[in-house]
């Protein structure tokens, strides 16, 4: 069990406020979320609704003003910055709209970077990176410089890199933002396959309604509250 209820991610009454001069801005008002392994969840909402803020809180990159966040049974509110860093390295993989690849390094070397940070041996790094590139369909690109890849290929490398330390949770922030419709669909299908076949939890923030329609659940973040829009093939009222 990953929390008291068996979820990999739990947010309970999460609130996040920011100060804007003398004014308090309430971005997240009362967010509740339970996510399990093999579940692919998309989060939608208008710009500025707090979607990325929520992902950052789940990733331990930000802390809630109040409320509880659990990652595999660990209450993030009670962890030190050092412990949070360890959780991010071992439990969470991040996929961004920007690709953030090191352009002069090879594809293989880019996938190895998180494992270097996590002190994985050179032999194991290379073995794991090769296996991950096969998973995302880029085994023939291993020794190409990252700068030579297409946008879709770069996003696949980023997904392989996100999986490098074998995390249980993948957080994707607008992963189709710079991709055409066909390529974006393939990326979302790859994320869905990772959730279902590799026993991962995938949370994806997206403005792309077609991308969201491929996920198991769509949640809407509006006025600081997360509500269901779609689940198990059924639109919610």
Listing every helix as H and every strand as E from the N terminus to the C terminus, the arrangement reads EEEHEEHEHHHEHEHEEE
CATH architecture: 3-Layer(aba) Sandwich
CATH superfamily: P-loop containing nucleotide triphosphate hydrolases
- How many strand units? 11
Beta-sheet strand percentage?
A: 25-35%
Proportion of helical residues:
25-40%
CATH topology: Rossmann fold
Enumerate how many helices there are, as a single number: 7
**Average pLDDT value?**
94
Shape: globular
Query: Which structural category fits the helices and strands?
Result: alpha/beta
Sheet with the most strands? 7 strands, mixed
Q: How big is the Rg?
A: 18 Å
CATH class: Alpha Beta
Low-confidence stretches: none
Distance between the termini: 31 Å
Spatial ordering of strands, largest sheet: 6-7-8-3-9-10-11
Q: How many domains, as an integer?
A: 1
Structure characterization notes:
With 237 residues, the protein is of the alpha/beta class. The protein has one domain: 3-Layer(aba) Sandwich (Rossmann fold). The protein is 33% helix and 29% strand. It contains seven helices and eleven strands. It has a seven-stranded mixed beta sheet. The protein has a four-stranded antiparallel beta sheet with strand order 2-1-4-5, with helices on one face. The mean pLDDT is 94.
List the helices and strands and how they pair.
Elements: E1 9-20, E2 23-35, E3 39-44, H1 51-58, E4 66-71, E5 74-75, H2 81-91, E6 92-95, H3 107-117, H4 122-135, H5 151-162, E7 169-173, H6 181-197, E8 201-205, H7 209-213, E9 217-222, E10 225-231, E11 234-235
Parallel strand pairs: 3-8, 3-9, 6-7, 7-8
Antiparallel strand pairs: 1-2, 1-4, 4-5, 9-10, 10-11
Helix pairs in contact: 3-4, 3-5, 4-5, 5-6
